[in-house]
Design goal:
single chain; globular; six-stranded mixed sheet; alpha+beta; aminoacyl-trna synthetase
Length: 958
């Protein structure tokens, strides 16, 4: 009988599927435990060995909790809407739904590419997912509910008094009775006040426009990251170094009418909620910084009228340092600020417009990160200081962002490093006054930015005050003259929710006279239409502009031909689609009740499962998915749907498994490749080469390389003296573009999934990045074979019913204790080490006792489930090992009853003796003095002193 992983694993994967072994129950007497993975986007490239790391960890934990008697929900699905599928459709002419389906289920696409399929790859690794609850965000039966949530957001407003979202009807009731002057809401700025009689006299259209300023999802002209190459708006986290993360296309800032989500309404709750959840401090800090709470004041600076602009205007500024108001020497507006075009003088117009055009090519993130580049232009306009009435020049500069604060800064160079650098860079130019110092501190070398340790000078009524007293007094003075008030501000901006692309959730929205109307929930889903072209239309409309059947018949309540649009009963539908984060902002709740046709989940299911107990995924989602998910969860809680305030109790970020890339070195300007040790100062270009063409000694298979790609067919090589070509090696992110991908399929085929699972857990701490080294796989495979030899040999089962020895029990219970502690603390790598120690010890002890080997099989089951099931079956059990109770640790087996003492003479150890630990010093001395070895050492002498420390040392002196 031999260990055959392929046969064993196929057998048990079939058993689990047929018996629904891991299906969770929505009603159970067992305590519940919900373990969730961040679900994958199913690309055609499939899984590489880095992808399953988090899944294996969550699976180990899920299986362990089942052994502990929990009803475990461990689901899996696919975040299947997204830009990559659409880009692939544009390139190949295939339907995104077709390629997405093939990527998940496997098969051959229209290009003839053999696609492994995510589902088959995941199944081969032996995950204990409850596949009966699988979701795909691109399925209409799923996004029907995403559309429904969007409608709930549209029909809600945020009441600051109750500190939660409420139905829009309650706001309308207030307007009808008393107007809006006493409404305390999160809403657009500068909403005109109106009375109840005025509201009731407004037309329906006027009322709808006003309500849009309060709704939690709303249409507004917004500064967005427009990517012409992809034809869509991108979120900040989809941009890297000023270009799109997907494809590397340039991104510019542009004003567009977009759907937005009023996530800013939840800024304080998002901040406070971080104190209630068990997440890593680094992720919490990322969110705190992104939310960016600041306490200060809103200050209004009136603009000085000019010959070409006599209209009364003001620049609104939020500042955290109102105490420094007498140090303001200039103002800076974001280049996109709406006032820039209105206040720029004719003399400065060309320079301002050129600067704005240049700035539009830089993303917000790039501008925030670039602290070295100083650039800006004087507008020619002046503002008026609210107290001194002195004119203050107004500049524009890209270090000020339109999306943060008000998009305007009151520049105090003596107290802020960026203002200081800006003022010195433009020193002496028209529109840049000398720096004014309002601190009793030296600022000749740098600004004084501390909030303490100073007294204000040259600051009128603030002279002699510090930060706290000065802030309080200036806010009182600003409120008195009507130029400002105290305010708490947040960096968190409302989230743009529109994408100019095809492959996303359609909005359940049609337009009457340009105003959005929601389609009634009973008519959902509004299904994505067929289009002939996935690119924007010739006149710049989103891809849905290519649809011919994309209009809403408000009488028949159905989607009809565009030719039927009459703007009376048939109206145009929204052409944008929802962003990628829409479907992923609530998916964990759908898993709770995945087949419910009427609701996104029943109240009973939501109440039973509550929130996710353990969430494992990448840290790259800190300010994207994790923030949006918390926002939607809090909103659904406000509306009485979600049972908890926070969706994910505990969050763990798995580290990345890195690839070992290989490089050949091309001699510049030639098709000649120089072996690594022969370069010797020559100008060469390193080029990634497929790692499958390299052996374990870093030698390139030259013929295989020449056949790999057409442009290498005639390559020439400068080799080592032995005729071999040695490649360079470097640890990098594992990716298809670097040709360093190792697929789990190959590992499973050669060594088995249990070996892969154990090896990935063995590589190092879960949270850390670690390089992949295939050479280590064989050692883990050898361990599993050694484990099997405890249970069977070539002739079959060798397990006995004999009583185990003390050493057997000690090895087992040491392992029970260690494994339980390690899984609870997510230290999976040290568990694998303990398994190896235990098996080595039991092998040395020649242990084949059932009392030891049965619990050992259960212990290893979470990590290597297939072999554990097989061993359990061989031991005579017919049911799965999956829910057998976890072995109980008995401390008594680790309590030492005896001690092997080193016996020393004058400090030198001469022999050892094993003695019971309960002996007194006198009893130990009596035994030692009668021992033949002691008598030989003393040779008739009597020691001057006998030093005995029970349990530690015995030393005879003199």
């Amino acid at each position: 009988m031999k260990y055959n992983p392929n046969e064993i694993e196929a057998k048990w994967q079939k058993y689990w599927a047929e018996n629904q072994t891991f299906a969770a129950q929505n009603n159970s007497d067992k305590p519940k435990h919900y373990v969730l993975d961040m679900f994958p986007y199913p690309s055609g490239a499939g899984l590489h060995v880095g992808h399953p790391l988090g899944y294996i960890a969550s699976d180990v934990y899920s299986r362990y909790k089942r052994h502990q008697g929990f009803n475990v929900l461990h689901p899996m699905g696919y975040d299947s809407f997204g830009l990559p599928a659409e880009q692939y459709a544009i390139q190949t002419g295939q339907r995104p739904e077709d390629t997405t389906s093939v990527n998940i289920d496997g098969g051959v696409d229209k290009e003839g590419n053999q696609i492994a399929g995510y589902r088959k790859q995941l199944d081969k690794i032996g995950f204990s997912f409850d596949w009966s609850r699988e979701v795909r965000t691109s399925n209409p039966d799923y996004y029907k509910h995403t559309q429904w949530i969007f409608i709930q957001l549209f029909n809600s407003w945020y009441n600051k008094n109750s500190d939660k979202a409420e139905d829009i009807s309650t706001l309308i009731a207030v307007f009808e009775k008393e107007g809006n002057t006493n409404v305390n809401a999160v809403c657009d700025d500068n909403i005109a006040p109106f009375s109840a009689s005025e509201w009731n006299a407004f037309s329906t259209e006027e009322q709808q426009k006003i309500l849009l300023q309060y709704r939690l999802t709303y249409l507004a002209e917004t500064e967005v990251n427009w990517c012409p190459g992809l034809g869509t708006v991108l979120a900040n986290d989809e941009i890297v170094n000023g270009v799109s993360e997907r494809g590397g296309f340039p991104v510019i800032r542009k004003k567009m009418t977009q759907w937005s989500m009023r996530i800013s309404a939840y800024a304080e709750r998002l901040l406070q909620g971080l104190d209630t959840i068990d997440w890593t401090e680094s992720i919490k800090e990322s969110q705190r910084n992104w939310i960016g709470k600041s306490v200060g004041a809103m200050v209004s600076f009136g603009l000085v009228p000019t010959a070409h602009s006599s209209e009364s205007k003001a620049i609104e500024v939020f500042t955290t340092r109102p105490d420094t108001i007498f140090g303001v020497t200039f103002m800076t507006l974001a280049p996109e600020h709406e006032l820039v075009a209105q206040i720029t003088t004719p003399e400065q117009k060309q320079a301002v417009e050129e600067y704005i055009e240049k700035t539009a090519k830089r993303s917000e993130r790039e501008r925030m990160a670039d602290v070295k580049t100083i650039s800006g232009v004087f507008t020619g306009a002046y503002a008026e200081h609210p107290f001194t009435k002195e004119p203050i020049p107004v500049w524009i500069g890209d270090y000020v962002l339109a999306g943060y604060g008000t998009g305007a800064v009151m520049a105090v160079p003596c107290g802020d490093e960026r203002d200081y650098a800006f003022a010195n860079f433009f020193k002496g130019q028209n529109g840049m006054p000398a720096i004014k110092n309002i601190f009793n501190k030296d600022i000749s070398e740098s600004a004084y930015g501390d909030k303490g340790g100073f007294e204000l000078v040259d600051s009128d009524f603030l002279n002699g005050l510090g930060y706290k007293e000065g802030t309080k007094k200036v806010i009182e003075a600003l409120e008195k003259i009507g130029h400002g008030k105290g305010k708490t501000n947040y960096r968190l901006r409302d989230a743009v929710f529109s994408r100019q692309r095809y492959w996303g959730e359609p909005f359940p929205v049609y337009y009457v006279n340009g105003l959005p109307q929601m389609i009634d929930a009973q008519h959902l889903p509004i299904i994505l239409p067929e289009v002939a072209n996935y690119l924007p239309t010739e006149d710049g409309l989103p891809p849905l502009g290519n649809a011919t059947t994309w209009a809403w018949d408000s009488v028949q309540c159905s989607v009809v031909s565009n030719q039927s649009i009459d703007h009376k009963t048939v109206f145009p539908l929204e052409l944008n689609t929802m962003p990628g984060w829409a479907g992923s902002s609530w998916y964990w709740m759908r898993y709770m009740d995945a087949h419910n046709e009427n609701e996104f989940a029943s109240q009973d299911a939501l109440k039973y499962w509550g929130s996710v107990d353990l969430y494992i995924g990448g840290s790259e989602h800190a300010t994207g998915h994790l923030l949006y998910s918390r926002f939607w969860n809090k909103f659904l809680k406000d509306k009485g749907f979600a049972p908890t305030e926070e969706p994910f109790k505990k969050l763990i970020n798995q580290g990345m498994i890195l690839g070992m890339s290989a490089f050949v070195y091309r001699l510049d300007g030639t098709n000649t490749y120089v072996s690594k040790n022969q370069i010797k100062g020559q100008n060469v270009q390193p080029i990634h080469v497929d790692v499958t063409l390299i052996n374990s000694s870093d030698e390139l298979d030259i013929e295989a390389f020449k056949n790999w790609r057409e442009d290498y067919a005639n390559a020439e090589f400068i080799t080592e003296e032995n005729g071999k070509y040695i490649v360079g090696r470097e640890i990098e992110k594992m990716s298809k573009s670097k040709y360093n991908v190792v697929t789990p399929d190959l590992i499973c085929a050669e060594y088995g999934a249990d070996t892969l699972r154990l090896y990935e857990m063995f590589l190092g701490p879960l949270e850390q990045a670690k390089p992949w080294n295939t050479a280590g796989i064989s050692g883990v495979f050898g361990f599993l074979k050694k484990l099997c030899r405890l249970y069977f040999d070539d002739n079959g089962l060798i397990v006995t019913n004999n009583e185990p020895t003390k050493d057997n029990l000690k090895s087992l219970h040491k392992t029970i204790k260690k494994v339980a502690e390690d899984i609870e603390s997510f230290s999976f790598n040290t568990s694998v080490s303990q398994f190896m120690i235990c098996v080595n010890e039991l092998s040395t002890q020649n242990c084949h006792e059932r009392a030891i080997l049965e619990p050992l099989a259960i212990l290893i089951s979470p990590y290597a489930p297939h072999i554990a099931e097989e061993l359990w079956s061989l031991l005579g059990y017919t049911d799965s090992i999956a829910t057998v109770a976890f072995p109980e640790f008995e401390a008594a087996h680790l309590v030492e009853s005896s001690k092997e003492y080193p016996v020393s003479f004058n400090g030198k150890m001469r022999f050892t003796i094993e003695l019971p630990l309960d002996l007194t010093k006198e009893q130990i001395e009596e035994i030692i003095m009668k021992d033949e070895r002691t008598l030989r050492q003393l040779d008739g002498r009597t020691p001057n002193k006998v030093i005995i420390v029970p349990g530690k040392i015995i030393n005879l002196v003199g």
